[in-house]
Every structure is written in C-alpha cells, then in structure tokens.
Amino acid sequence: MGGVLSGLILSSAGIKATRNINMPCNFSGAVVLPPLLVTECILGLVGNGLALFIFCFQLRPWKSSTVLLFNLAVTDFMLILALPLRISYYLSGIRWRFSEAVCKISLFMLAMNRSGSTFFLMAIALDRYMRVVHPHHPINSLSVGKAMVGALGLWLVPITMTVHVFSLQHINTTYCESFIVDTKTKGNLSWHKFTFLFSFYMPLLVILYCTFHIISHLRRRQLAHQAKFRKALYFIVVVVVLFILCFLPSNITVLAMWIKMSQGFKCADMEEPTTVFYITISLTYINSVLDPVVYYFSSPAFKNICRKTLHLTFRQPSECEPLGSVFPRCCSLCFRYSRRRINTFQISLIKNTEALHDS
C-alpha cells in the first residue's frame, strides 16, 4: 500500500521523489475508511434522496432560494453516488479493480461535487445575507427561472476547476488517487492543490463575512429576539458550523503534510499523517450527509413537508407531550372507542326490542 504515500511524495517533492516510488510505506486507513464511508453512503442516500423527493414532488411553489437548496441536494446526492467505488477501492486494500477511465470519472465526481457543495453553501449564505441585511435589493426578487440560470452558471465554477482530473496520468494503474500521477503533469498538480484550497477558503471567507454582518445588523437594529430574524441567525450559524467541522480538518492536514514534505522526511514519519489525511478527506463527505439539516432550518415549507412525510411512517408525540404519556393516551383512545361501540350496540339492541314489543 506504499503507493498512496509515494504518490503524495511525488506531488510535493517533484522529480527527486521518483526514486522513492517503491518505498515500503504502510497505510492503515484501509481498515478505518470502509465502515466510515459505508455509513456516510447509507445516511447520505436516505437524507438527500428524501430531500430531492420533497423538492421535486412535494414543495410548491418554488422560490429563488429553493433553487439553491435543490442544487445543493443534487451535488450532495451525486457525491454520495461516487462513494461505493471508493468503498470497493479501500476494501480491496488500495487496489483499483476498474478501468482508468472509471477512476478518472470517480475522482472528478468526488472533486467536482465536493467543490460544488462548498460553493452552493456560499451562495445560500449570500442569499440569506441579502434578505436580512439588504431586504429591498432587486436580487431578492429574482424569478425562479433567473435563479436557475444563476445556479447553472455557478455549476461551471467547480466543473472548470476540477475537469483537469481527466488529464492526470497515473504511474501505477492499480491506484486511483488524484495525487499519484506522472511528474510530467506538474502544472496540473499545482492547479489541483490550488483548487483544493481555494474551494474551501474562498467560500469560508464569504460565509464568515455574511455571518458577522447578519449578527451585527440584527444587534444594531435590536431584531435578534424576533422569531423571524432569530431563525435566520440560527440558520447561518448552522451553515458555518457544518462547513468548518466538515472541511477545516482536511485542509489543515493537507497543508501540514505539504509543509513537512517540502522539508524532507522519512517514510515511517508520514504513515500516521497520511492516514489522518485520508480520514479527514472522508470526513468532508459528512457535509453531504448533514446538508439536509440546512434544508430543514432554511425553509419552513420544507420543514412542514418533511414532518408530514415522516409522520406517515413514525407517529410523533406533540412537543408538550412527554414520551411516557403516549402509551396511556393510546390505551385511553382504545377504551373510548370500545365504549362507543358498546353504546352503539346497546342502542341498537333496545331499538330492536322495542320493535318486537310493538309488533
């Protein structure tokens, strides 16, 4: 499994590292990653599948903000669909069992949809910022059609940034990693690093800017205690927390590894950091699992439909009702129903008796 670490060495140390391609490095992440990815895949398919069902068949009419939420759900769902190939890859002991074309498509799907998720989260934060801080701006009155055109334009950003994955040439076709590539494509490696960092730090700065200005605007106008604006504040905080928790660890880890590799290293010193790096990369997919929470808090209509949909499967007690009272209440309903049936039977029996007596 040393090729994984060797690929990272190539991407950082350049041609000097080619003599270390067969370095016997171990990678213990193959044990940890499959259970994590399987869990993310199942939860992501259920959560985003339900979200897409609600957006497509239940939620009417759409608003411009709904378009952004829908596209975020699409990016998350497409990313989750690419995870089974990674699960198979790690279960096989870091051995790619499919063609190189399938490998490139898989890497493109992961990179493009991961970047797309960050940019659509940024757009959602900007949308909420405009509605709270600049409520009378014309952009808040965009039609659904214009919002769709804007969303399509936003799709071009992650696609353009990650399409270079198709040009990467792998040294060893048994691996499927975006860093294990021929040193001749050094320009692509630099671009790959840039897009990896840019797709996190640029949206992060925008989201933090929107958050701070929303908070300061609500405090300045003393609106933070009103229910409508308090929900907007909770929503933007949820976006910030999810974004940082899911994407910050991998970006810190990869920066630390690149710095350490540029200073020279031994293979044994990089085994644990490499494992941590791949685990943190896999943690970025949790964002796609948790994004349905964003839909739930951002749209009251989505929240109501989600509750009704789940209500068909699970009977939920009211907010004021303790869980311990559910069983007694059900027994009481059954008792009253049985008593009503008995009373109906008694009335019918009396009427029949009176009819026989009259005859």
TrEMBL record:
Membrane-spanning intervals of the chain: 33-55, 67-85, 105-126, 147-171, 191-212, 233-256, 276-298
Domain of life: Eukaryota
Gene Ontology CC, one term: plasma membrane
UniProt topology in membrane: Multi-pass membrane protein
Subcellular location: Membrane
Keywords: G-protein coupled receptor, Membrane, Receptor, Transducer, Transmembrane, Transmembrane helix
GO molecular function: G protein-coupled receptor activity
Coiled-coil region(s): none
InterPro entries found in the cross-reference section: GPCR_Rhodpsn, GPCR_Rhodpsn_7TM, HCARs
Pfam families membership: 7tm_1 (PF00001)
Residues in G-protein coupled receptors family 1 profile domain copies: 47-295
Family according to the record: Belongs to the G-protein coupled receptor 1 family.
UniProt cross-references to PANTHER family, sorted A to Z: HYDROXYCARBOXYLIC ACID RECEPTOR 2
Protein name, entry field: G-protein coupled receptors family 1 profile domain-containing protein
Natural source organism: Cyprinodon variegatus
